[in-house]
Amino acid sequence: MWKFWKPQTETADWLVVGLGNPGAEYADTRHNVGYMVIDQLEGPEGLEGVVRMKPSTYMNSSGEDVAPRARKLGVPPERIIVCHDELDLPAGTVRIKRGGNENGHNGLKSITEHLGTRDYLRVRIGIGRPPQGTTVVDWVLSPVEGDISGQIALAAEAVRLITADGLAKAQNEIHSR
């Protein structure tokens, strides 16, 4: 039986990146909420002109995968959306911004280094700060507590709004919730 192979898209309007760590041991951790958003975006409705990716590298080397893929697709940094965990936002919160500091997030640092700019879009998924006595590393690599499906769905909606209506409209809609 023949199987037909369809080549991957050579160009795209947007590149949506979900940050996380590969492997089953990290699947349900706070650091992998970006991967969870990509999974949410894999639904049947699709996104026209949008390539979604989960870097195959570990979080701290994300830029090694993201920058070459963006170049290959012809997507400029201002049309790259990175979905990531954010310590500086309370759990349950989703915020959108363009550029800015990486605030110690090694995945963002790697992407900035490899793109040569901070001028990409970010869907920030709040995970809150660790409780006293817990290190940041232990916190981000520990499993999420409770049901975060609503937060992941909101982050996926943020991506859809950015690609359809632009940053400002998406911010107004998402930040009002």
Automatic annotation (TrEMBL):
Entry's EC annotation: 3.1.1.29
Any single GO BP term: rescue of stalled ribosome
Site (Stabilizes the basic form of H active site to accept a proton): residue numbering on this chain: 85
Key words of the record: Cytoplasm, Hydrolase, RNA-binding, tRNA-binding
A Pfam family this chain is assigned to: Pept_tRNA_hydro
Active-site positions on this chain: 31 (proton acceptor)
UniProt-annotated location(s): Cytoplasm
Substrates-to-products reaction catalysed: an N-acyl-L-alpha-aminoacyl-tRNA + H2O = an N-acyl-L-amino acid + a tRNA + H(+)
Quaternary structure note: Monomer.
HAMAP family named among the record's database cross-references: Pept_tRNA_hydro_bact
Similarity remark: Belongs to the PTH family.
Name of the protein: Peptidyl-tRNA hydrolase
Organism: Corynebacterium mycetoides
